[in-house]
C-alpha cells in the first residue's frame, strides 16, 4: 500500500465524509420527550387506542391504525364505525400518499371480507371513496378508482344510480379536468352491465358518444377500450348501430394509441358482428391498419402480431384467395422481422435506439410464435409443410430466447394439429431438446410425454417395432438434456425432467432404457444431494423396472437396491427403508410374470435378512447394553463359582470332587480367554462369520455342560435359581473386583434379551431370559410353553 502524503490526505477526507454521513443518524434519534409522545397506555382497548392515535399520534401511527382497520371491523364493527371511522375521515383530508394508499386497500379488504352489510358499507365508506377519486397523485387516484370499481359490483341499482351515475353526468363534461373525464370513462364501462337496456340507451350512451369525441386523445383512447364492455351490456343490435360507427371513426384517428385501441376492440368484438359487417366494414379497416403498421410506430406491430391469429381465425371464410395469401405473407414477414439486420456486430457498439428497436422486433417474433397454432388452422394442417414449415424452422432457431421459449410452449399444440404429419417436426423437437437455454427445455418438457407419444404413434408408420426408426436422435438428445439440467443450479427443471422420463417405457425399448437411462437414474438416486431430485429418480427407476421384460436385468438392479439398503443408517433412515420396502411391495403386487414374481419374493427375503448399520449415537447405547449384559453374565458365573467352592469345602474327603472342580475352572478360564474382545456393532445376519461364531459359542456351551455333568447340587439349586430369576427381571449391579479372567458366557438368547429395546424396528426380537450353565428352560419357547404355574425343569448337574 502507498502511505505517502497524498494517500494519507485522501484517507482523512474519507473519514471526514463518514463523519458527515453519521451526523444525521445521530440527530434522528428520538429524544425522551418524543418517546413520551409516542408511548400509549397499555390498558386502552383496541378501539380506544385507535381513536387516540388518529387524534394525537403521528402519521406513521395513523397509517398503522388504518392498516389495522379490517381487524377492528371484524372484532367490533359497531364501535369501529361509530368512533374510529369519523377519525379516519378527518385524517384522510390531510393525509399523505402512504396513508391514502393504505386506506384504499383497507376499504377494499373490508368489502371483500363482508364485515358489514352492503347497505352499511355504502352508507359509511362510499362517500369517502368518491371524495378521494380525483386525488392529485395519480397512484392514489388509481387506487381509489380500483376500490370503487369493485364496490360497483355489489351495490344495488338504486344506490348506483343516485350516488354514482347521476354525478357522473357532470363529471364527464369538457369543462372538467382530463383526470375526471378519464375516471368517468372507466366508471361508464363498469356501470353498463348493471342497468337495463333502456337506461343505458337514454343515460349512458350519450355520455359514451361525447367521450369518444373528446378533444384529448387520452380520453378518446380510454373510452374506446371501454366500448367492448359496453357492447356486451347493450346487445348486438345497439352495438351494430351505435358502437360500430364509433369504432370505425376512431380507427382513422390521428392518434396512434387511439387507432390501436380501436383495432384491438374490433378484434375482440368480431364474434358479435355478422358476416356482412365483417366483410364490408371490418375487413377494409383491418387491411388499412396492417398496411400502415410498418410505416408507423413499432408498438402497433407488437399489438398487431399479438392479435393476428385471432383476427385471421375470426375473418376465416370471408377472405378471397388473394386476401388469404396476403395475410399469410404478412405473418411470414413478421416472423422474420429484424433478423435480416443481424450481422454479428458487438452489442457495445450498437446505439441505444437500435437496441430498443431490436427488442421490439423480438417481441413481434415472440407474438408470432404464440399465434402459430392459429395460423396452422388458417392454412390447413395439410398445407403446413408447403406454407409454414420454413417459418416454424426459423422460429425454433431464433436467436432470442423468449421466441424459442414461446415456440416450445406451443410445440404440443402444433403436434396435435399436424396429427399424422407430426413426423415433419421431428428435427425441431431434437433442436429444442438440445437448446442451450434451460428455460426453453423447461417449457418443452411440460408436455414431453404427450409429444413423444404423438411422435411414436403418428406419422406414416405407427407400428410398435418401427417407433425408434423415426426418432434416431431422440435418445442422445434426452440424455444430453438431462445432463445439462443436472449440471445447472435449476434443480426444479431437473426434477421435472426426471418425472417426465417415466413415459419412456411406452416410447422406446427396454434395452434402450436399461443401457441409456436406468443406470443414470440409479446414479442420480445414489449421488445427487437434492432430495426432490432423488425422489423423482427413484420413482422413475421403479417404473423402468416395472416395464422391463428381461429378468436378468431386473435381478441385477434389485441386487443393487439390496446393496443400497445395506448403506441405510438406522434409525435416521428408517423412513427411507420403509419407502424402499413399499416400492418392492408394489412390484410384488403388480407383477404378473411367474418367474419375475419368484425373483421378487426371493429379493424380499434377502432384504429381511440383510445386515443393517446403525448411527453412531445408536451404537453408543447399543455397546452399553452389551457391556451391561456381559457384566451380568460375569456375576452369574461368579455366583456359580462360589457355590462350587462351598461344595468343595464340604467334600474335602473325596478326591474325585477336587479333580472335577479343577477341570471346571480350567474349562471356564479357557472359555473366557477365547471370547472376542471387541463387541459387534451391527446386528448379525446370515453370513459366514456369524455362522462360525455361533458354532464356537455352541461348542463352548457343550464343553461347559460336560464339565458340570458329573456334579449334583440338588440342595443348592433352589437358591441359585432364585438368584438367576432376580437377575433376569432387572439389572443387577456388577460386583466390584472382577478380574480379567472372570468367567463369561455369551449366548445368542442372552444377547437378544438386552438388545431388543435398542434394535431397529424392522427386526423382531423376543425378550428371552438369558440361559445359564444350569440349563434353565426358556419360558417363551413354544415347545416348552405351558401354564403359568409350570415350574422350570431342573437339570442334573
Extended strand count: 2
Mean pLDDT: 76
Overall, the morphology is flat
Proportion in β-strands: under 5%
Unreliable runs: 1-9, 18-27, 459-468, 668-797
Q: Multimeric state of these chains?
A: single chain
Overall structural class, as computed from helix and strand content, comes to mainly alpha
Question: Percentage of helical residues?
Answer: 55-70%
Q: Count of DSSP helices?
A: 39
| Alpha carbon gyration radius | 44 Å
Distance between the termini: 93 Å
**Cross-sheet strand order for the largest sheet:** 1-2
Largest sheet: 2 strands, parallel
HEAT repeats: 204-241, 243-281
Protein name: Serine/threonine-protein phosphatase 4 regulatory subunit 4
Biased composition (Polar residues): 772-789
Biased composition (Basic and acidic residues): 644-669
Amino acid at each position: 500500500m502507498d502511505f505517502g502524503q497524498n494517500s494519507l490526505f485522501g484517507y482523512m477526507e474519507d473519514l471526514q465524509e463518514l463523519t458527515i454521513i453519521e451526523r444525521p443518524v445521530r440527530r434522528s434519534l428520538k429524544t425522551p420527550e418524543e418517546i413520551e409522545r409516542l408511548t400509549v397506555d397499555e390498558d386502552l382497548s383496541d378501539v380506544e387506542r385507535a381513536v387516540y392515535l388518529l387524534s394525537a399520534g403521528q402519521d406513521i401511527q395513523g397509517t398503522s391504525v388504518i392498516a389495522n382497520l379490517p381487524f377492528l371491523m371484524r372484532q367490533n364493527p359497531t364501535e369501529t364505525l361509530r368512533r374510529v371511522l369519523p377519525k379516519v375521515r378527518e385524517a384522510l383530508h390531510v393525509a399523505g400518499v402512504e396513508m391514502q394508499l393504505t386506506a384504499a386497500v383497507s376499504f377494499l379488504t373490508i368489502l371483500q371480507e363482508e364485515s358489514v352489510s352492503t347497505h352499511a358499507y355504502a352508507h359509511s365508506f362510499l362517500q369517502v371513496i368518491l371524495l378521494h377519486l380525483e386525488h392529485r397523485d395519480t397512484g392514489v387516484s388509481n387506487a381509489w378508482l380500483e376500490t370503487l370499481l369493485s364496490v360497483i359490483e355489489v351495490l344495488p341499482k338504486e344506490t348506483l344510480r343516485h350516488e354514482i351515475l347521476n354525478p357522473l353526468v357532470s363529471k364527464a363534461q369538457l369543462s372538467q379536468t382530463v383526470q375526471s373525464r378519464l375516471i368517468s370513462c372507466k366508471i361508464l364501462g363498469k356501470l353498463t352491465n348493471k342497468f337495463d337496456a333502456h337506461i343505458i340507451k337514454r343515460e349512458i350512451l350519450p355520455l359514451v358518444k361525447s367521450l369518444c369525441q373528446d378533444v384529448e386523445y387520452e380520453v378518446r383512447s380510454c373510452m374506446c377500450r371501454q366500448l367492448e364492455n359496453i357492447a356486451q351490456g347493450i346487445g348486438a343490435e345497439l352495438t351494430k348501430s351505435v358502437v360500430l360507427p364509433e369504432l370505425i371513426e376512431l380507427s382513422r384517428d390521428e392518434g396512434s394509441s387511439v387507432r390501436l385501441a380501436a383495432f384491438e376492440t374490433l378484434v375482440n368484438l368480431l364474434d358479435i358482428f355478422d358476416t356482412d359487417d365483417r366483410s364490408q366494414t371490418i375487413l377494409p379497416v383491418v387491411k388499412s391498419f396492417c398496411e400502415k403498421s410498418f410505416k408507423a410506430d413499432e408498438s402497433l406491430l407488437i399489438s398487431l402480431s399479438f392479435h393476428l391469429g385471432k383476427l385471421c381465425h375470426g375473418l376465416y371464410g370471408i377472405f378471397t384467395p388473394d386476401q388469404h395469401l396476403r395475410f399469410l405473407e404478412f405473418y411470414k414477414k413478421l416472423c422474420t422481422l429484424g433478423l435480416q439486420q443481424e450481422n454479428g456486430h458487438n452489442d457495445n457498439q450498437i446505439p441505444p435506439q437500435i437496441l430498443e428497436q431490436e427488442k421490439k422486433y423480438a417481441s413481434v417474433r415472440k407474438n408470432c410464435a404464440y399465434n402459430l397454432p392459429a395460423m396452422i388452422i388458417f392454412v390447413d394442417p395439410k398445407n403446413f409443410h408447403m406454407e409454414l414449415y420454413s417459418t416454424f424452422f426459423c422460429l425454433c432457431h431464433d436467436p432470442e430466447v423468449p421466441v424459442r421459449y414461446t415456440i416450445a410452449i406451443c410445440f404440443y399444440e402444433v403436434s396435435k394439429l399436424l396429427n399424422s404429419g407430426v413426423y415433419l417436426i421431428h428435427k425441431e423437437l431434437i433442436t429444442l431438446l438440445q437448446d442451450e437455454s434451460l428455460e426453453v427445455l423447461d417449457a418443452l418438457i411440460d408436455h414431453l410425454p404427450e409429444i413423444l407419444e404423438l411422435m411414436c404413434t403418428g406419422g406414416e408408420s405407427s407400428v410398435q417395432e418401427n417407433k425408434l426408426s423415426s426418432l434416431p436422435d431422440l435418445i442422445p438428445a434426452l440424455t444430453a438434456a438431462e445432463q445439462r439440467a443436472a449440471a445447472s443450479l435449476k434443480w426444479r427443471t431437473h426434477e421435472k425432467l426426471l418425472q417426465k422420463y417415466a413415459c419412456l417405457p411406452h416410447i422406446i425399448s427396454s434395452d434402450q432404457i436399461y443401457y441409456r437411462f436406468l443406470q443414470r437414474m440409479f446414479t442420480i438416486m445414489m449421488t445427487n444431494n437434492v432430495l426432490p431430485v432423488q425422489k423423482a429418480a427413484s420413482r422413475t427407476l421403479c417404473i423402468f423396472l416395472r416395464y422391463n421384460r428381461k429378468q436378468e436385468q431386473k435381478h441385477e438392479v434389485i441386487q443393487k437396491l439390496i446393496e443400497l439398503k445395506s448403506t441405510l443408517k438406522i434409525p435416521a433412515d428408517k423412513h427411507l427403508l420403509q419407502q424402499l420396502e413399499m416400492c418392492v411391495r408394489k412390484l410384488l403386487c403388480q407383477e404378473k410374470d411367474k418367474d419375475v414374481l419368484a425373483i421378487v419374493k426371493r429379493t424380499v427375503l434377502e432384504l429381511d435378512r440383510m445386515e443393517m448399520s446403525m448411527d453412531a449415537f445408536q451404537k453408543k447405547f447399543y455397546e452399553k447394553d452389551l457391556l451391561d449384559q456381559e457384566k451380568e453374565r460375569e456375576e452369574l458365573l461368579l455366583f456359580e463359582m462360589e457355590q462350587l467352592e462351598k461344595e468343595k469345602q464340604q467334600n474335602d474327603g473325596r478326591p474325585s470332587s477336587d479333580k472335577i472342580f479343577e477341570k471346571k475352572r480350567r474349562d471356564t478360564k479357557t472359555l473366557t480367554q477365547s471370547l472376542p474382545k471387541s463387541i459387534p456393532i451391527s446386528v448379525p445376519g446370515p453370513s459366514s462369520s456369524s455362522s462360525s461364531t455361533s458354532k464356537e459359542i455352541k461348542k463352548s456351551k457343550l464343553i461347559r455342560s460336560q464339565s458340570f455333568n458329573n456334579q449334583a447340587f440338588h440342595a443348592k439349586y433352589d437358591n441359585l435359581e432364585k438368584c438367576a430369576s432376580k437377575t433376569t427381571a432387572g439389572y443387577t449391579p456388577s460386583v466390584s473386583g472382577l478380574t480379567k479372567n472372570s468367567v463369561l458366557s455369551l449366548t445368542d438368547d442372552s444377547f437378544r434379551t438386552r438388545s431388543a429395546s435398542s434394535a431397529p424396528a424392522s427386526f423382531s426380537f423376543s425378550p428371552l431370559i438369558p440361559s445359564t450353565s444350569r440349563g434353565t428352560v426358556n419360558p417363551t419357547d413354544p415347545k416348552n410353553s405351558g401354564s403359568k404355574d409350570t415350574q422350570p425343569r431342573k437339570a442334573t448337574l
